[in-house]
Design goal:
Keywords: Signal. By secondary structure, this protein is of the alpha+beta class. It is built from 16 helices and 34 strands. It folds into three domains: 301 residues, Immunoglobulin-like (Sandwich), CATH 2.60.40; 156 residues, no CATH class; 214 residues, Jelly Rolls. Strands 1, 2, 3, 4, 5, 6, 7, 8, 10, 12 and 13 form an eleven-stranded mixed sheet that branches. Helix 8 runs antiparallel to helix 12.
Length: 733
């Protein structure tokens, strides 16, 4: 029988979100939230009556005793008088969604108490334009169950408004849970009501693994069969039991007991490892307002649809997008024409296709970066970049891939989960949308090794007299030697103050994060001008009005720069510098002949050198920076290890000893360490010469992915680096 709890809540939500000039919005929301909490707490969910924690979980920080997801989605069609009179599409397609997630959690220690003591949520969001309407309301409910069985529901007075969006269109709230203690159980739910007009819902994700053990997880969905429901089970997720109610609505149910395996905090990728189900729900009647893929035109339920059909949706979307590239996201035709004029000049140059492609990629990106009013997404960038390549006769092939935070192509669930790319068939170079400030054909970490597909190479097929077919392959992946972080330190001792001059040299995937964190727009502008041999002042290049805007953007970046380098020091050492003395970016790392991202930073640190009678004690190991400590339950692992990339860290450290002091030989000897196995290495060599302590240290991870069986070997490397951080050496007079 069709469950009516959420249906009643949906009716209430519709009533409360109807414009009413005589009612106060905040009071309406408060009433809606109160009624929602009553309905949810009244739900009959047998799993939530289980309050016993099995002995095997008694040492866990927290245990999810029960979790429940519930989803109800309906559609309706409405006649829009205003649109009709204005000559526009006058049938509005509306989708209403009621989405509940509830869990009962046993709190066993301080870490769990902190985790479940405070919540942020979005109470209301409203977005509207002439053909688009979205109303969103979220309700949070919390109650505490004491060990004696007493139930304390958190009063609505405790829910505080944190911020309000523009014109009160977005209201954020915060709840600090009062009275929660170790030994309590906390019953929590989030209820979301969404009403969308003329566009589709975001995807739903049901995860069958969490950061804590879960005794029970149940899912119940009720979906209008006039919508298209596509779902895919990933990483061993259980499938739904499928049925229909008396009205023909789709019912989906799944129940899983005793989920013992948890998500580790370190080196884990949920999308690639957690059992989960992705669900996309489409109103295929909205083709007047948006692209509706062919795979969704068949109404009803599609469980684990053919990934090839979803890929075809994306190939068709690519064809549609190629018709509407305009000026590639530049803010004016004048800027677009300037870009085309500059690109055209290289057509007759005696360059390789790769050099031409790199130049065009960089020039296009430079044009976007210097146009602060540009509006270009990843799809448009690749579409327009292809148009530029075609214009100068550089052969290329269009392709698609997904990043590591999406499902692989052979399990593609929705066409929007892909990233588009271009390939040069002769040199086998691949161009993806910009990430940080990489060389154009460098492959960002999140795409390396991923499944990809290229359109048919018709020229090659004609030459070989074979049928032109799409190529399925994996993008190249770098090695630990490709992805290096080389740190060079000169350290000087002044009584108990240590002055550190540190140079960072980063290559491959190791430059992405710090490029994004430290590089300023003015530095980028200068680097691209050198790369592209642009000798005009930017005021002449972009016009006075835009030049003034750029100068203001440069100024704001410089204002923030000092704080960014202070953050970098804290990121490296795990603590703040006593004083920042200087900093400089030396190389952006965006060209093949200078591919490394290089910067210097100089500062003083307290606590690294201390007096011990007539001697000093130097915390030499701390100069390699803060190392990750693996402790507690994280030391046991059943899930495979999923890193960002194979990579190498190298430290070349020179400490200038105070005049007349020598490092104690026994202390120097302890600074020599060697741990090496098939997963990587931690090797440290220490010597003293000419009044200097010299440390040469290597830490290497050989592979991006390691099986869980190799966890102990990785622990050996990680433990060695963490132990090294604690090593000191006595400096004797």
């Amino acid at each position: 029988m069709k469950q009516n709890m959420l249906f009643l809540m949906g009716v209430l939500a519709l009533l409360l979100t109807t414009p009413n000039a005589n009612a106060d919005d905040k009071e309406k929301y408060k009433l809606f939230a109160e009624e929602t909490r009553k309905e949810v707490w009244a739900l009959k969910l047998p799993e939530f009556t289980n309050t016993a924690v099995p002995d095997k979980y008694k040492d866990e920080s927290a245990v999810i005793l029960a979790a429940h997801s519930r989803l109800e989605i309906t559609k309706k069609t409405r006649f829009n008088v205003g649109a009709f009179l204005g000559g526009f599409h006058y049938i509005d397609r509306e989708v209403n969604c009621r989405d509940l997630y509830r869990m009962l959690v046993q709190i066993n220690d301080k870490a769990a108490l902190k985790e479940f003591s405070e919540f942020d949520y979005k109470a209301e969001i409203r977005k509207k334009d002439w053909r688009y309407d979205e109303n969103y309301q979220q309700v949070l409910g919390v109650r505490i169950i004491k060990p004696d069985g007493t139930v304390n529901e958190i009063s609505t007075d405790e829910y505080m408004t944190a911020t309000e969006g523009k014109k009160d269109q977005e209201q954020l709230q915060k709840l600090a849970v009062p009275g929660l203690e170790i030994g309590d159980k906390v019953d929590i739910f989030f209820f979301n009501y969404t009403s969308l007009e003329n566009h589709n819902l975001d995807p739903f994700v049901f995860r069958f693994r969490q950061s804590h053990p879960m005794l029970s997880y149940t899912v119940h969905c009720e979906i209008d069969d006039k919508l298209t429901t596509q779902y895919r089970t990933l990483n061993g997720a259980p499938d739904f039991k499928q049925s229909k109610d008396e009205n023909g609505n789709i019912l989906l149910d799944v129940a899983v007991k005793d989920i013992e395996q948890t998500e580790p905090d370190l080196w884990y990728n949920p999308m690639q490892q957690t059992p989960m189900t992705l669900m996309y729900i489409t109103n295929s009647k909205m083709k007047k307002y948006t692209y509706i893929p062919k795979s969704t035109t068949e109404k009803g339920l599609q469980s684990n649809p053919d990934a090839a059909a979803i890929q075809e949706d994306d190939w068709e979307f690519i064809k549609q997008a190629q018709k509407y590239s305009g000026y590639g996201g530049l803010s004016s035709p004048k800027k677009g024409i300037r870009l085309l004029r500059n690109v055209k000049q290289i057509k007759k140059k005696d360059w390789t296709d790769e050099k031409k492609a790199d130049f065009i990629y960089n020039y296009y990106r430079f044009a976007l970066l210097s146009d602060i009013k540009s509006d270009c997404n990843n799809e448009l960038f690749i579409i327009y970049f292809q148009g530029l390549l075609d214009w100068v006769d550089v052969p290329n092939l269009f392709g698609m891939v997904t990043n590591e935070d999406k499902e692989p192509l052979d399990k593609l669930t929705n066409y929007r989960n892909t990233t588009w790319l271009l390939a040069l068939p002769e040199s086998q170079k691949y161009y993806l949308p910009p990430t940080a400030y990489l060389i154009p054909h460098e492959i960002p970490a999140r795409y390396q090794g991923r499944q990809a597909i290229l359109e048919p190479d018709k020229k090659k097929a004609k030459k070989l007299k074979t049928k032109a077919e799409r190529e399925h392959f994996n993008l190249p992946a770098g090695t630990a030697d490709d992805n290096q972080n080389i740190t060079t330190i000169q350290a000087d001792i002044d009584n108990t103050l240590l002055t550190v001059s540190r140079n960072e040299y980063r290559t491959g995937t190791q430059k992405e994060y710090m490029q994004s964190a430290l590089v300023k727009l003015e530095d980028v502008d200068a680097a691209y001008r050198r790369l592209l041999s642009i000798d005009k002042e930017f005021a002449e290049e972009v016009g006075k009005k835009y030049a003034d805007d750029l100068r203001e953007a440069f100024r704001k970046g410089r204002e923030q720069e000092k704080e960014d380098y202070k953050w970098e020091i804290d990121f490296y050492h795990g603590e703040n510098a006593k004083e920042l003395l200087g900093y400089q970016m030396q190389c952006l790392g965006n060209r093949p002949d200078s591919a490394a991202f290089i910067y210097n930073v100089r500062y003083t640190m307290d606590g690294y050198i201390r007096k011990a009678g007539p001697n000093y004690v130097l915390s030499a190991g701390r100069l390699i920076g803060e190392q990750t400590q693996i402790e507690g339950k994280e030391r046991k692992r059943s899930a495979d290890i999923y890193m960002s990339a194979p990579r190498t860290f190298q430290w070349n450290i020179t400490v200038n000893l105070p005049e007349g002091y020598k490092a104690a030989p026994e202390g120097v000897e302890k600074l020599n360490v060697k741990v090496e196995n098939e997963c990587g290495a931690f090797i440290a060599k220490a010597v003293t010469e000419n009044g200097k302590l010299i440390l040469n240290i290597l830490k290497r991870y050989n592979h991006k992915i390691e099986p869980a069986a190799n966890w102990e070997k990785l622990l050996q490397i990680q433990d060695a680096s963490k132990a090294y951080e604690a090593l000191s050496v006595v400096l004797k007079k």
